[in-house]
Specification:
Blueprint (H helix, E strand, L loop, with lengths): L2 H7 L40 H13 L4 E5 L2 H9 L7 E5 L4 H11 L5 E5 L4 H7 L4 E7 L11 H10 L3 E5 L4 H4 L9 E5 L13 E5 L2 H14 L5 H11 L2 H20 L4 E5 L9 H7 L6 E6 L4 H10 L4 E2 L9 E3 L11 H6 L6 E5 L5 H12 L1
Parallel strand pairs: 2-3, 2-4, 4-5, 5-6, 10-11
Antiparallel strand pairs: 1-7, 6-7, 8-9, 9-12, 11-12
Bound molecules: pyridoxal-5'-phosphate (PLP).
Amino acid sequence: MKFNTKVLHAGIHPDPSTGAIMTPIFQTSTYVQDGPGNHKGFEYARTQNPTRQVLEENLAALENGFGGICFGSGMAAMDAIIKLLKSGDDVLATNDLYGGSYRLLVRLFQQFGIESRFIPMQNTDYIQSQIKPNTKLIWVETPTNPLLNIIDIAAVCKLAKANNILVCVDNTFASPYLQNPLDLGADLVLHSATKYLGGHSDVVHGAIVAKSKEQYEQLKFIQNASGAVPGPMDCFLILRGIKTLHLRVQRSCENAKVLAEYLLKHPKISKVLYPGFPSHPNHHIAKAQMKDFGAMISFDLKDGQFESAKKVLSNTKLFACAESLGGVESLIGHPASMTHASIPREDRIANGLTDSLIRLSVGVEDIDDLKDDLNQAIG
Ligand SMILES: *Cc1c(COP(=O)(O)O)cnc(C)c1O
């Protein structure tokens, strides 16, 4: 089955009892057994839920993995993955990554003896030089957030495999429509389904797809043992969002391409970060591992001022000033004061995340309206 068919059909069947074409929302906490231990495969809803199960099967198909495991948020999904590790283990993570991922690794798991180091991952030799005997996990986020660097997933996985290290790719920014890390050698892929998978800014949800049965079973165990499961209504909303994933992401990418070129020519803008430009340092990797270049754009203002960036964000009318990304409506954000405020300023600036950097999540509105809005807001 091709991707555009999988979004609608993989793991999804009409309800056998009624013929309902939509997956029912099984809003139940328990299941009646014919006799003790004599059940239909469902005992208690933390452990199994039929709505969630359909979503997990669909996600496994979209990412070409063995199985999907769903959680109440992207961070809960990441939390489950870090619990595969033990005290004394070392994590190498992308230096330019989602602020909440940094916070979870540093402020939560460090106190349990799991060490994390944040490094640039564009150069594979450099990653190799950073591997220690206790390095057990490489955490890759690509495109990176908010600098939109591209990391060569296949090259990182090759290196990791040679050193017996697990690789997880946070695929939230690309979505499974644009990029499938398991096909490139990754062991696990993580999604904040809150973003492109849900796509309508109406639900918080997270998911993992595991390539192997072994890791799938370990994560299923953690899902049930720790219990950070999503509710059935949320699973239904993600399933509904996925039905149009290919159409939404395709249109968003088309709009982003036009806006990136417009911004590049703007006299008040010093640089535009967008992997679709042939001049982008990792353009060739993006071209090889992604179907299109995504719908996230970051740009910096010539005057470099925190206040000037904030003014642009207050002036837009269509681009809503909000955290998050991947919804049908376009959003504008200021990483330094919003999504990345939890990263110390020196670390932020050292990584190129300046005070005047602005990030766009381009939606599916009419391109002329989006362009006009940025034009009037930047001035
Ligand atoms: C939003 C996001 C997360 C966290 O997901 P939640 O659903 O908000 O918990 C993780 N990684 C990336 C890249 C994100 O954008």
